User: Fold these one by one.
Assistant:
Number 1:
Amino acid sequence: MGGGGSTRRVTFEADENENITVVKGVRLSDSVIDRMKEPSSPGRQHRGSGAVNDEELKKRIAEELALERARRDSEAQKRRLKQEQMYVRDEFGKLLERERISSNEHLTRAILRERAATEEERQKAQRFARQLEEKDRELKKHDAYYKEQLARLEERVKPFFSLLTKSF
C-alpha cells in the first residue's frame, strides 16, 4: 500500500472496548488522526457495539498513510522543482554575466584597436605635415636663392644693356 516499498511493520493495540487506540511504528499527522476519528459512513459494516472492523480499519489507515505519503512526495517534488528552478536561474545568470563580460572584452578590444589606428593616423598626418613644412622651407630657400641669383645676373647684365640702349 502506498509508495516507497517500505517494509515497516505496523502494530495495533486495542483498548477494553475493542477500539484501536495505538498504532505503533507509524507517525501519523494530525489530519490523518482527525480523519480516523470521523464516524464511519453508513455503508460500512460495524461489529457489535459500534466497533470498527480490524480489516476495515487497517485498510483505512493504509489509505490514509498512502495519501499522507503522496502529499509528502508531492511537497518534496515541489521543493525539488523550486530548487531546480533556482539552479537554472542561477546558471542563466552566470551565463548572462559571462556573455556580458565577453562582449565587454570584445568591445574594449575593438575600441583599443580603433584608438591605436586613430593614433597611427594622427602620427602619420603629423609626419606628413612636418615633411610638407620641410619641403615648403626648402622651396622658399630655393626661391630665395634663385631670386638672389637672378638679381646678380641682372646686376652683371645691366652695364651691357645700358651700353646697348645708348648705342641705339
Note: Residues 43-50 have pLDDT under 50 and may be disordered.
Number 2:
Amino acid sequence: MSSPFEERSGVVPCGTPWGRWYQTLEEVFIEVRVPPGTRAKDVRCSLQSRHIALAVRGQELLQGKLFDSTVTDEGTWTLEDRQLIRIVLMKTNRDAGNCWTSLLENEYAADPWVQDQMQRKLTLERFQRENPGFDFSGAEISGNYSKGGPDFSSLEK
C-alpha cells in the first residue's frame, strides 16, 4: 500500500509562537513545543467539536474556538519525546474547498502565501483521491484551484 499523500508531498505548516499547525483534506494537525521532560500527567487537553484548550503544568498554551467544526470523538493528542504535543483533529467537512485559513476563529491565521500553498496542496490531494492511479505528490498547480479547484465530476469518463 502506498504512503498517504501528505507523506509523499510534505506539509504546508503555519508557524505560531507555540509551534505549528497544518492540514490535509481530512485532518488538522497541531504541534506544540513544551518544556523538555514534560509528562502526560502535566498535560490537560480538551478537544470539542468547535473548541480546544491545552494547558501544561497549569499554564494555558492554546485555547479558543476552532476555525471550523471537527468530529469530537476522533480528536487525539499524544506527547512525543516528552517535549512535543501532537494534536490531530478530524474535520467534519472534508472537501478541498474547506481549507482552514486559521486554526482558531481569530487567531493563528496563515499568511496569504502559506494560505495559497495550503489550498494548492488540498486541491492536489483531492485530484489524487479522484484519480488513484496517478501520483500528484510532486505536481504543481496553477489557475483556478481556490475552493478546491474545478469540479470534473459531471464529465463522462
Note: The first strand starts at residue 14 and ends at 15.
Number 3:
Amino acid sequence: VKVKIPFGNKYLDAVFSVPEKKSTYGVILTHGAGGDMNFPHLVSLAAYLASHGILCLRFTCKGLNIVYRSKAFKAVVEYLKHSDDYKLSGVFLAGRSMGSRAAASVIRHLSQEDDDDFVQGLVCLSYPLHRPKLQSKLRDEDLLFIRCPVLFVSGSADEMCEKQLLEGVASKMKAPKKIHWIDKANHGMAVKGRTMDDVMEEINAHVFSWLRENIAREHK
C-alpha cells in the first residue's frame, strides 16, 4: 500500500507491506545515504516480515544531513503511531547504514522527551560506526544513550564498522544488545561466493527471530 507521509510542507514516499492477519507490531525501515526505499535489501526484508505477520513501513528520505534524516524518521513514527488504519501496540525502528544512524538518533531523542514505550527496539543493518579508514572518530554517541533492545547485523569485513570497534561500543551500551556478524560481508553485504538472495535470507531470518523474541518478552 503506497502512502504519502506529511513532513513539514512536503511529503515522504512510503510503502506498507501488510501481513494477511492484523499485525500488532510493526517495523519502520529506511535506506542508507544512497538509494531509496526500493533498495533490494529493504524490499526483501519488508516482504519477509509481512509474510511472517509483521507490518513493515518503508520510506524514502533523500538528503545526506543526519539531522534532517532523523526529523523525517520521527515524522514517520508519529504518522504510524496515530494511524487509524493500523492500530499498533509498538514499533521497531530499522535502517540500513545512514538510515540506522537516523533511527538511533530518533530513539535517543524520543527517550529524552517522553516515557511512551511505542518504540520497542532498534535494528541496525550495516551501522556506519566510522568512515572508511577513519577509525578514530566513532559515531557512537546515540547508541550509548539508548535503553531499548538493539540488534546489529554487520559484515565482518565492513570497511565502515570494524568488528572489534563495534564489539567495544556494544560492551559500553546500557541497552540489551545483540550483534549478528555476516561472515566476510562488506558494507553492502556482498560476500564472495554467496548470492545476495542467500545473504538476505540469513539477514531476514535473523532479524525476524530477534523481533519475535522481543515481542514475546513484551507480552510476558
Note: The chain has one domain: 2-219.
Number 4:
Amino acid sequence: SLPDLDLLHDPEDELLCSNLMDLVQATLGRAPLGSKRCSRLLMPTQLLAQVRTELLRLACSEPCGLRGALLDLCVEHSKACHDVGHIAVDPTVVPTFQLTLVLRLDSRLWPKIQGLFSSGPAFTPLKLSTGFRVIKKKLYSSEQLLIEEC
C-alpha cells in the first residue's frame, strides 16, 4: 500500500533514480535498432514517471536499494525484443538484483518504421508506448522471477 511505501522511502534512492532515468533516456537516445541504424527513442513523460515509480518500488526490498541494481533495457516491437543497453546503477556496488525493462514502440508507428530494421544509415525519432514490463531477478537467491506488467 502507499503508506507502507512512504515508510521505505530513501532520499538517496530518489536522487539515484533521477540520475538513472537521465541515463536511460540518454541510452535510448542512441539506441541501435538495426545493423547501422540509430533512432532516438523518446519516452513520454507519463512513461518516465511510471518507470521511475516501479523501479523504486522494486528496489525498496533489496539490501542495497537501487544501488544494487543492474538494468537491462530492451525495446519490443512485433514479437521481437531488441537489447538497447545495460546499466550498472552503481558500479562500485556488487549487484544484488537485475531488472530488465522492456519498453514498447508505439504500435501506431509500426508501418512508418518497418524500414528502420533493414540496413543503411538513418536517424529517426520514435515515440515509445506508455506500456512496459519489468522483470526482476534476484542475484543472491534462487527465488523465482518477478514480472510486473504496467
Note: The longest strand covers residues 123-138.
